[in-house]
Amino acid sequence: MRLKDKVAIITGAGRGIGEFTAKRFAQEGAKVVVADLNEADVNKVVEEIKADGGQALGVIVNVTDREQVDKMIADTLEHFGGLDILVNNAGITADNTLLKMTQEEWDRVINVNLTGVFHCGQAAAKVMAEKGSGVILNASSVVGLYGNFGQTNYAATKWGVIGMTKTWAKELGKKGIRVNAVAPGFIVTPMTAKMPEKVLDMMKEKSPLRTLGYPEDIANAYLYLASDEARFVTGTVLSVDGGVVL
After folding, report:
1. Annotated catalytic sites, by residue?
2. What φ, ψ does residue 138 adopt, rounded to 5°?
3. pLDDT tens-digit readout, 161-220
4. N or C: which end of the chain has fewer CB within 10 A?
5. Tens of pLDDT along 91-147?
6. pLDDT (tens digit, 9 = 90+) per residue, 45-62?
7. 3-class SS at 120?
8. How does the annotation summarize its subunit structure (predicted)?
């Protein structure tokens, strides 16, 4: 097992990519903290992991609230006795063109996708630095690398995540902590389900593989980066996008 006895927190783990990542990590022996805002989703994922023979703890957390994030870390340490991996997966969209985007739409996405990553990353890094090892993985996006119509706020956060990833890799490497990001392309999730069908079809046509990705594709990328197989990989952005930007 590639993550045997590792303790991993995965935010936004109630659905989509986070859910698949939590289950994939558990299959590889990790003790998984399923963190999300939606209690029903959290309970469902925890129950399914346990039914499959894995270990999981459910935590209800709003990543924009530092007190809740600190409690998540404390609960993890109390329940599992340590922390080895953080996957900063929680994220939202609130799409609009620049000329129509409201302040509320801007603030909401910035708070979750950027400030939330900062809160979780800083809190986890303090624990990892004390023991001299750890892995932090951040969710960027192909949109962060290349932009996308109607997503000024989302693109800004996902580009910002790359900046944080590279900065943290430089700062935390001497503490034994690796920091990387994954930049998914267009993945079949509840989030992309909100997009018009014609947009999804266009994305399929742009990809040399003529298909969209699936959550397990991203979960497998996280698994590699979290494992010892990636012991010499830090500060990188792994694009998992089907070649959509070629």
Report:
1. 154
2. -115, 140
3. 999 999 999 999 999 999 999 999 988 887 677 778 887 787 788 889 988 899 999 999
4. C
5. 999 999 999 999 999 999 999 999 999 999 999 999 999 999 999 999 999 999 999
6. 999 999 999 999 999 999
7. helix
8. Homotetramer.
DSSP 133: -
51 is in an annotated binding site: no
Domains of the chain, CATH where assigned: 7-184+215-237 (3.40.50.720)
Kindly report whether the global pTM for this prediction surpasses the value 0.85. yes
**Distance between CA 109 and CA 198 in Å, rounded?**
24
**For residue 79, what are the contacts with CB-CB under 8 A and spacing of at least 6?**
33, 57
**157: annotated binding-site residue?**
yes
**With contact defined as beta carbons under 8 Å apart, do 199 and 234 qualify?**
no
Q: What are phi and psi of 140, to 5 degrees?
A: -100, -145
**What is d(CA 25, CA 51) in angstroms, rounded to the nearest whole number?**
15
